[in-house]
Amino acid sequence: MGILTSEHPSIPGFRGNKANFRDIVETGRRMGVLVFVFTPNGVRDSASEIVGFTRHPAVKGWVRLSFPKPHVVYNRIPDRKAERQPAEQTTLRMFLESEDTRLFNPRFFNKEELWHWTANDDTLKYLQPVTEIWGDQATLTHFLDRFNPLYLKPVSGKAGKGIMQIKQEANSYLLTFVTGRGRELKRFRTRFSRILYEKVNRLTNGERYLIQQGVSLVQYNGHPFDLRTLVQKDSEGEWDVTGLGIRLAGKQGVTTHVPRGGSIGKPENIFPRVFGSEAKQLYSRALELAVAAARAIERQSGHALGELSLDLGIDRNHRFWLFEANAKPMKFDEPLIRKRSLERIIQYAVYLAEGRERSAHS
Ligand SMILES: Nc1ncnc2c1ncn2[C@@H]1O[C@H](COP(=O)(O)OP(=O)(O)O)[C@@H](O)[C@H]1O
Ligand SMILES: [Mg+2]
Q: Which of 68, 116, 210, 233 is the most buried (most CB within 10 A)?
């Protein structure tokens, strides 16, 4: 299996989460699968040979070697900007069209297409907060009349970047937003929707944004939380939930991201405390919805997917909501989920490679 990422000028020569790649290579070795990392630069025209990087217990760090064409390519190009580069596009296309290599998770999703996919699916449409493209003031006014709070999200955002929240208080609107990478929240208060509109417009900075119904999430010890589920295909090529984690928002948090002051919670502790006798049923429902969402998103995206992470919310009436799906899941910090997720990637790669063999010989 080749892990496709982008070039980097300094050693080891590629971008992405190296600790993650190392764990995948080592899991592969334990399970008898050769895994290497490569970039578009390492691919020769015929791609019969690829220059890439792997690890060996006898050698420290990454070793650069020549590899045969992989049976399976796991796409981990690190961001959308890199994905748009001509070399990355050429490589992706080459492997997507190749008869003897299977590539999965060919690209990033954006929140706008996810919104349409969700709206088009009979199960998922009920999970979707009401959403529109951010634009004129009439849209804002319409949302202010119907919902409190509201969320504003860049269609190509991740990890909470650029997210804003609007709360309507007795005599004013409170806009809370994060800037840059930090966990610091900024606040802006005004009594006038016109001024609120102009402030938001300035903050969007020309980026495409969604405006969305805000969901009042259930809380644990005063902290709102949501669910991060990792859904992966297994050794039979079937979708299954590898793990479900809880992310609690920090004090005054707008999102539940750990780098933004959120924290990790254990479902086995939190579900019974928050949901009492309903805990078991809600937990199973979360797993069911996650698998249904993965299936629907794969179908609608028109691409072969091997894994997805989904952000699910439960509101105070115990209704489920789907915030987003991510085709490049971040690594989970929970050790058990982490271990299983690595094994699943290898198992799925083996499944794909065997399918490839079968079709090549039939
Ligand atoms: N409509 C909403 N109502 C309530 N909370 C939301 C809403 N949308 C997003 N959030 C919160 O913000 C977090 C990040 O939103 P998400 O859409 O996943 O963007 P990102 O790509 O930045 O992770 C969610 O996990 C959730 O905690
Ligand atoms: Mg998210």
A: 233
